[in-house]
Amino acid sequence: MRRARRIAVTLTLACALSLAACDRGTPASLAPSAADSLGSRARSIVSPELGGGAHHHPPLVGSVAEYFGTLGQRFVPKAARGMHVVYQFDLGAQGTYQVIVDDGTMRVLDGAPRHADAILTMNGSDYLRMVNGQLDGAAAYLGGRLKIAGSLRLARRMREIFPPAR
Q1: In DSSP terms, which residues pair with 118 in a beta bridge?
Q2: What pTM value is reported for the model?
Q3: CATH number of the domain at 2-161, out of 3.40.50.720, 3.40.50.1820, 3.30.390.50, 3.30.1050.10?
Q4: How is residue 78 annotated by DSSP?
Q5: Which residues contact 76 (CB under 8 A, 6 or more apart)?
Q6: 161 phi and psi angles, rounded to 5 deg
Q7: Angle, vertex CA 32, rays to CA 30 and CA 37, nearest 5
Q8: Were 38 and a residue from 42, 122, 143, 160 both cysteine, which residue would form a disulfide, CB within 3.0 to 4.6 Å?
Q9: pLDDT digits (tens, 9 = 90+) for 93-136
């Protein structure tokens, strides 16, 4: 158990130390009009007003659709203040989702965006294990289960904004 914890810490440190090399530049800002012009393929499934109260221990979820449908319950608005980010989640057969974080608010869209600051690609079942706290994100990334395109720095901030279940 102690060895596994040491490996997880080492993987997290390795990811943090390689951040400068992995990050693909500064994130683009999301202009207010950009959120409204994402195209007909995307539809809002969580309103930006949700997310008032993040749980200290978010609930476990049974499906990817349930996770994104209840993402407002995990959202920590304080951690997202000043951020203007578009996250994209490509989860294979379980779907593609987009989360727009805009200065302490968020909304979830079903579909692929025209622009994303960080794109996470992962098998849907592995992603479900990760958000339920059963798979470490850094270990998944370094093991090749999770691929990140765009800003690695922004991808790492997701843990603060949308904490996993513990």
Answers
A1: 87, 150
A2: 0.68
A3: 3.30.1050.10
A4: G
A5: 51, 54, 160, 161, 162, 163
A6: -80, -40
A7: 85
A8: 42
A9: 999 999 999 999 999 999 987 699 999 999 999 999 999 999 99
